[in-house]
């Protein structure tokens, strides 16, 4: 019995190389347009998996979701250029996201911090294009949209920390 090797990818070059040697690709995007873009760089057909921050809203973990989405957004400058997101990214590029994560892990509310307020200014875009999140209906729509482009998806942090999201997911697919 063998095992399958998946490689996480977010750049065209690595995606092309990885598709030649791996059984599957774990894409660091969840927005269908972004997934279609990165998939065009596959050299051969392999299993495709979308992976991204996930949460059913409203949630006490909303700030964690926004931080995770900001990290994903800024992970690849070529991607930012491709989708004309450089100017938006530049609004928050100077922010120490690692520091905000540490503050949040201590249980503090980030809405009072100027750096987080800057991130929150683009939160609508972050939620829509960099997360699998929203109301129960939005969440279901996003999952269905992703599965039209990818074979599977993985619900990333902070989904597993929110018991309400976990219970809602069970309800959604029962």
Characterization of this structure:
It is built from 10 helices and 5 strands. With 174 residues, it is α/β, with parallel strands linked by helices. The chain has one domain: TIM Barrel, CATH 3.20.20.30. Strands 1, 2, 3, 4 and 5 form a 5-stranded parallel β-sheet that branches. Helix 2 (32-39) links the parallel strand 2 and strand 3. Helix 3 (62-73) runs antiparallel to helix 6 (97-105). The protein is globular, with a radius of gyration of 16 Å.
User: Which fold name is given in CATH as the topology?
Assistant: TIM Barrel
Structural class: alpha/beta
Q: What's the helical proportion of residues?
A: 40-55%
Strand content: 5-15%
Largest sheet: 5 strands, parallel
Task: Count the beta strands.
Answer: 5
Mean pLDDT: 95
CATH class wording:
Alpha Beta
Name of the CATH architecture:
Alpha-Beta Barrel
**Rg over C-alpha atoms, rounded to the nearest angstrom:** 16 Å
H and E string: EHEHEHHHHHHEHEH
Indicate the topology.
Blueprint: E1 6-9, H1 12-21, E2 24-27, H2 32-39, E3 47-56, H3 62-73, H4 77-82, H5 86-92, H6 97-105, H7 114-120, H8 123-130, E4 132-134, H9 136-147, E5 152-156, H10 163-172
Parallel strand pairs: 1-2, 2-3, 3-4, 3-5
Please name the defining characteristics of this protein:
alpha/beta; TIM Barrel
In short:
The chain is of the alpha/beta class and 174 residues long. It has helices at 12-21, 32-39, 62-73, 77-82, 86-92, 97-105, 114-120, 123-130, 136-147, 163-172, and strands at 6-9, 24-27, 47-56, 132-134, 152-156. The protein has a single domain, classed as TIM Barrel.
């Amino acid at each position: 019995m063998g095992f399958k090797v998946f490689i996480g990818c977010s750049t065209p070059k690595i995606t092309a190389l990885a598709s030649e040697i791996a059984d599957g690709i774990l894409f660091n995007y969840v927005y269908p347009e972004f997934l279609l873009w990165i998939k065009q760089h596959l050299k051969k057909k392999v299993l495709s998996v979308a992976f991204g921050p996930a949460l059913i809203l409203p949630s006490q973990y909303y700030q964690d979701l926004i931080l995770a989405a900001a990290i994903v957004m800024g992970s690849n400058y070529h991607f930012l250029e491709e989708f004309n997101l450089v100017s938006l990214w530049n609004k928050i590029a100077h922010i120490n996201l690692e520091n905000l994560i540490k503050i949040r892990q201590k249980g503090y509310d980030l809405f009072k911090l100027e750096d987080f307020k800057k991130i929150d200014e683009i939160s609508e875009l972050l939620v829509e294009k960099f997360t699998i999140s929203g109301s129960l209906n939005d969440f279901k729509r996003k999952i269905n949209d992703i599965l039209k482009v990818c074979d599977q998806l993985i619900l990333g942090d902070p989904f597993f920390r929110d018991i309400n999201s976990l219970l809602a997911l069970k309800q959604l697919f029962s």
